[in-house]
Structure formats: C-alpha cells, structure tokens
Amino acid sequence: MVHPHVFVAAVIRWTEALSLHVEGLGPCRLERAALFRFKTSGLPCSINPHIHRLNPMTPETLYRLAPPLIALQLLAFGWSVNREIHTKDADRQIVITLPDVINIMSLFATVGCLIVLPLATESYLWLSRIVLACAYVLIAFHPLTIAAHYGLWKRKSGSEHATEKTGFRYVTREERTTSLVSALLVVVVAMYLGTH
C-alpha cells in the first residue's frame, strides 16, 4: 500500500526531473535522474514496470566505445597488409586473407551503424548495440584467425600455404574452424541482444 504523501512526493520529484529535461540535459539524463529519485523516494519501483528496462546504451557510451573499435580494426588490417607486402616468398601471391575480409566487413558495418546512422537518423539504440558487440567479438577473434591462417597453431614450422599443385592455399583448416566459431558466437550475441 502506497501512502498518499509518498506518492505526492514522487510526483513532485518526477516533475523536477522533467524540468531538468526542459533545461537541456536530455532524455537519457532524465531517465537516470528519474530512476534515482524514484529509488530514494521510498516508492516501490513496481509501480512503474518500465523502470527496470532502461537501456544502458546511451550516446556517451556509443561514442566512447566506437573509436577504439575502429582503431583496432584499422590497425589489424594495416598490420596484415604490411605483412603480406613484405613477405619474402616469391612462390606466394599477395592476397587479402579471410580474416581481413571479415574485418573489413565489420569495419564498414561499424562505421555505418555506429557513426553514420546515428548522425543521420538519431536512431542508434537497438542496432548499434548489436553491431558494437558483434564487431568487438570479431576483432577479438582476428588474431586467432590470423595465426591459424599462417599455420602458427601447428607444431611443425611449415604452413599449409604451399602445395605441390597449386602453390598456395587461401584458407587453412584451422582458419575455417576459428572463422566458423567466431561467426557462430556473433550470431549468438546478436540473437541475445536482439531479444533483451
């Protein structure tokens, strides 16, 4: 049972939070201020069931996590290109590896959904959360997949790149495995964030 004076006090505090929004603090700070005032007012949070579903993704979080991710993606791609160019093996052709292809696709999705889309439409919460998490998963798997591409997970010093018939193997078995694991994990993360 909610006492009338507690309810009136809560309404007054919600009105104060609304005045913060009018003064230009923005809707995200309004939600945080309202949540804090609700908890400190003694009014049960069950009176507003949506109070527990406040989205943790804010513009501040988005623009704080996006630049390091883009920097990591560009750094990983630049390192791979530099290594391919300076590989002193006349029998090998210079190619864009599968991990780099995945990284480039992730980079385009990151820039499009975390930078361009929010600036153009001011809509970022649901899609940007998914893209941000999936891109971080992919960049975390990138060193493992690159190591598998160059055969570093094997005990032998040689790699599977050189073959007698073709002279080059684009994707190794370990590389396919790590790429598949990262893709499955990305799907799981996307499905989880899409439903929560």
From TrEMBL:
The chain crosses the membrane at residues 62-81, 101-120, 126-152, 177-195. It comes from the Bacteria. Keywords: Membrane, Transmembrane, Transmembrane helix. This is Uncharacterized protein. It comes from Terriglobus saanensis (strain ATCC BAA-1853 / DSM 23119 / SP1PR4).
